[in-house]
Amino acid sequence: MTSPMSKPAMLGCLLVLIALAVIPLLGDKHAMDVTVEIMILALFALSLNVLIGYSGNVSFGHAAYFAIGGYTNAILLTSYDLPILVSMPVSVLFAMVAAMFVAWFCTRLTDIYFAMLTLAFAMLVWAVLFKWRGMTNGDDGFVGITIPAFLDGRIPLYYFTLIVVAASIALLWLICHSAFGKVLVAVRENRTRAGFVGVDTRRMRWTAFVVAGTFAGIAGSLFALFKSGMYVENAFWTQSAQVLIMTLLGGMYSFFGPAIGAAVLHMLEITTNRYTEYWPTVLGGILLVILLFLPDGLVGLAQKVKNKFSGSGGAR
Amino acid sequence: MAQLEVNDIHTAYGLSQVLFGVSLKVEAGQIISMIGRNGVGKTTTMRSIIGLTPPRQGSVTFEGQDVTGWPAHKIARLGIGFVPEERRIFPELSVWENLDIARRPAAAGSEEWNEERVFSLFPDLRDIQQRAGGVLSGGQQQMLTIARCLMGNPRLILLDEPSEGLAPKVVEDLREQVKMLKETGISILMAEQNLSFVLYLSDQCHIMEKGEIKYSGTPADLRANQEILDQYLTL
């Protein structure tokens, strides 16, 4: 049984969708670029949250699936001249298969061992992208991706991204609010308990990993189109850390939290870069603030403030 | 052959060994009890059976199948339900979701446990289906834990300290509910410290101390043997 979305949440989603649909009409190119990137990062962060927020497994290597999706799309479009209708589904499939394979190993372990193994596999992916120059162009980056004619231009690419991201997020919402999502929450809350009521916890964690990796692949393949290039940095652990921070900043115990985290963090990054080149320092500071003062992220903070004013103890 | 046969199991948590050769049998439809003070190995015996802490030696056989060393979810799906002490529900999930997560089909030929049947045994749960598990009272949580276990359609239930921390009136209700469960044909292996609860329900009692079964007998035997009760059960 899928639990229905609450009325205010539905209204909020609708308003955000309308706002996003209107932005290109304003004609501000910079605003459009920023928004496209935020949409992609939001999908990336939401995909990670299936693993972290719902199943309770922290991954330090989520960028791997983003990069696999992006590079595959880039290479198929450019080196193999395939149409996007083939390249995009295949790139998502590649990310999914990679996640299936890696998850098989990682879900044998739990907690910190799980996290370290995800990092190890991600570094392996990074190393392959870095060294396989013939295919990926190594650390020079895979630039000059052949963008299909119908997506050539800011506005078509914007709406294409909006449609794919919105559809993906809707699908993720359904997955997380289905019986499957509820069982994941049970596994997160207590693996042992879920085990003795008959839940195959390892299989559930494996499935969550695969869902997360697949949707990260979608985000990555969109990213390749948007940047018309992919870079080894997209697979590096810093990228995995950044998406993890987005998720934490927004709030991992809320479905939309990570999307908000992605938007806020990206805006902060742009603003910071205007004044100083020390963005990583600022990022470190943000992480400290989250860990010390915002355990449930921005959504948790908003909930607390709301409860304070309405005077009720709160469900989230 | 008994439904459940626990054969000379030795179980340890890391270096500290808790069970030293526990053997017991549960025949289909019986209630068998383990009694004894805290820390004598009652819970560990259950954890060994359901696979949460597999025994290092010895074997556990359920309906003729050796399940020693199986993961907990496979043993649960085979037909053994576990109701842990302290009522371990999923606080974030609603009452209905707590039940739904454990749902498994019944074995051929037996009447299936579904929401309707569970609610007829525990009418209180019917009205609070949408409430989050975390806000229920102790008694409601205990009912929910047993109800959740029933949704898996087990043929044997491991019931760990069901009356612990509940008000006397609730314990009385629970006693009747457990009795009704037995009447449906489910076998129960129970750990309990409440002696009157045990003596009322059990077919056979095992008194445990220091990881071993020291005395076994029927409730009538025990009632007649004050010396044993004083030796092993009085604090």
Write the layout of secondary structure elements.
The complex is a heterodimer of chains A (316) and B (235).
Chain A: H1 7-22, H2 29-54, H3 63-78, H4 84-106, H5 111-131, H6 133-136, E1 142-143, H7 154-176, H8 179-189, H9 191-196, H10 201-227, E2 229-230, H11 237-250, H12 257-275, H13 279-293, H14 297-310
Helix pairs in contact in A: 2-7, 2-10, 2-11, 2-12, 3-4, 3-5, 3-10, 4-5, 4-10, 7-10, 8-10, 11-12, 11-13, 11-14
Chain B: E1 4-13, E2 16-26, E3 31-35, H1 42-50, E4 57-62, E5 65-66, H2 72-78, E6 80-83, H3 95-100, H4 115-121, H5 123-126, H6 138-151, E7 156-160, H7 168-183, E8 187-192, H8 195-201, E9 204-209, E10 212-217, H9 219-223, H10 226-233
Parallel strand pairs in B: 3-8, 3-9, 6-7, 7-8
Antiparallel strand pairs in B: 1-2, 1-4, 4-5, 9-10
Q: TL;DR?
A:
Chain A is mainly alpha-helical. Chain A has 14 helices and two strands. The longest helix of chain A is centred in the C-terminal third of the chain and has 27 residues, at 201-227.
Annotation keywords:
heterodimer; A: 316 residues; mainly alpha; ABC transporter involved in vitamin B12 uptake, BtuC; two-stranded antiparallel sheet; 14 helices; 2 strands; 1% strand; globular; B: 235 residues; alpha/beta; Rossmann fold; six-stranded mixed β-sheet; four-stranded antiparallel β-sheet; 10 helices; 10 strands; 35% helix
